[in-house]
Amino acid sequence: MTKTFAHHAIRAFALGAAIVAAPMAAQAALSLTVPTNALQANAVQAFSQDALDSFDIVGITLKPLGNASVVPNLPGAYNLPVTNISLQLVKIAGGSSTGSALEFNRLDDDTGKRTRVTLANFSIDFNAKKILADATQQGQAVVKKTPIFDFHEQTPVGLKYQFPLSITGKQVLDKLFLTLEGKKVFKAGLELPDIADLVLDTTDFGTITIDVAVKLRSKPVSNRPYVVAP
């Protein structure tokens, strides 16, 4: 079953590469979503030192859930396996880390109260330059596809094709700043004091490094959406 799925994924990648050679008139109508959960495709979100220091000050700790995991020997970095990539024309238009989640927990030292915000099922919109996630504030309903971060493309996305079936892609996104919606999620969900507004507005939260290769994982990651426990 794993081999069959992998063959479909590789064939989809090959079709994406073929788009590059298609006439421009035909390309206008082409779009493709490529499953990558059986392949070595990862997005590593590395929070900046400024972000980590800010978390410490207000008592925030992070916990990876679902497909997400801690990156060894890299404090504040989390691996979010890429489960699909969206192609439009000759470029990557988006990608998803479905099934991954990061849980932000806060303990208020003054009151002893605990609060929680969970971001799950991340996606990247390269056209709008937004990082989106299903956002859940403790005790409230999930708000799907919430824009959390704006980003800048530090390096342009590279989609390289080599005969017969080898495609790799790598990109670094930086200057991760909270959107207005993202700020509201953290401010309300973690019950942050008003003094935190300036930090939320001005903190660069780090980088996301995306690395894709046509190499099989030992076991495909789940592509089912992560559902936050009550």
Give structural notes.
By secondary structure, the chain is an alpha+beta fold. Helices cover 22% and strands 48% of the residues. Strands 1, 2, 3, 4, 5, 6, 7, 8, 9, 10, 11, 12 and 13 form a 13-stranded antiparallel beta sheet that branches. Strand 4 (69-70) and strand 5 (77-81) form a beta hairpin. The radius of gyration is 19 Å and the shape is globular. Residues 12-29 and 161-165 have low confidence and may be disordered.
Mean pLDDT rating: 85
Strand content is over 45%
Structural class: alpha+beta
Q: What is the helix tally?
A: 5
Q: Taking Cα atoms only, what radius of gyration do you get, to the nearest Å? A: 19 Å
Low-confidence stretches: 12-29, 161-165
Helices and strands in order:
Elements (H helix, E strand, L loop, with lengths): L1 H20 L2 H4 L3 E5 L3 E9 L1 H10 L1 E7 L2 E2 L6 E5 L2 E5 L2 E17 L6 E12 L4 E8 L5 E11 L4 E5 L3 E13 L1 H10 L7 H6 L3 E11 L14
Antiparallel strand pairs: 1-6, 2-5, 2-13, 3-7, 4-5, 6-7, 7-8, 8-9, 9-10, 10-12, 11-12, 12-13
Summary, kept brief:
This is DUF1439 domain-containing protein. This protein has 230 residues and is α+β, with helices and mostly antiparallel strands.
Relevant terms:
230 residues; alpha+beta; 13-stranded antiparallel β-sheet; 48% strand; globular; signal; DUF1439 domain-containing protein
